[in-house]
Structure prediction request, 324 residues.
Amino acid sequence: MNRRGNIVSFRPDVRVLDATIRDGGLVNNFYFDDEFIRALYLANVKAGVDYMEFGYKASKDIFSPDKFGKWKFCNEADIRAIVGDNNTDLKISVMADVGRTDFRRDIIPRSESVIDMVRVATYINTIPAALEIVEYCHELGYETTVNIMAISNASDVDIDGALELICQSHVDGIYLVDSYGSLYPEQIARLSEKYLSYGEAAGKYIGMHAHNNQQLAFANTIESMSLGVSYLDATVCSMGRGAGNCAMELLLGFFKNPKYNITPVLRFIEDYMLPLKASGVVWGYDVPYLLTGRLNRHPSSAIEFIRDGKTDYCDFYQELLDRD
Prediction:
């Protein structure tokens, strides 16, 4: 598959989604105050960002509202308190995690909501359940995506089967998700071509959601874009679980499309992200994430290692190897 454009061109089909609150919320249990959320919303509007993901539509029967901030649940009234009727070009997204959402109870018709898109997070083995949510949300009038997590653990046969099944649905887009930050640009290129071959034949766009365990989230994102992937996730200062994600400021700085403007994001970093880090909220690349990424492991053990203040990297690496 040929590359689409070059480093000095821009593609009008590209869309940027800010996942700072949703993925970043995994760092602080979604305890962002309204001032922070409103400032990020306004920064995204000024920066030309296309979508802002406010968080999850999580089940309150599974996750206690006493233990998580409100962006774990994204109640309609809470979003409207920030955006009003959202009379801007920015679209609003939420994520529904298969098995962790009461979608029939908590997702209202699009005509009654300020939300534009529902993204459905799933593993390969729960694709049928994901498509049930997709079809329900499609009937309600929402844009939808299927985000296949931990794709680095899936076989080619399973990926082919999943993509074939998803392409038969009403979903609008399919996301390639490097959950463990274990994939290299060459692998991302091969997977992007596979996703695009299925998606374009069925009229579905392809998106990319990268993690930064090996400091490749930005490289992997622009690699996928160069081949035709059009929906790109990023977070301000890479904020996200563990090593975090593709940095919004890197992505906006790379684009040649004049609709995107890095300055409002830089201002938001100065005013809000630096104080957030100074308050003790921890995320970002560290050696333990390199090791779990290199070995294609979930970052939970690295998160615990860092939380405990450990630095015996060699012992940690050996422990990971011994689990094989």
Summary: The chain has a mean pLDDT of 97. Residues 287-322 form one domain. The CA atoms of residues 77 and 223 lie 38 Å apart. The longest strand covers residues 91-97.
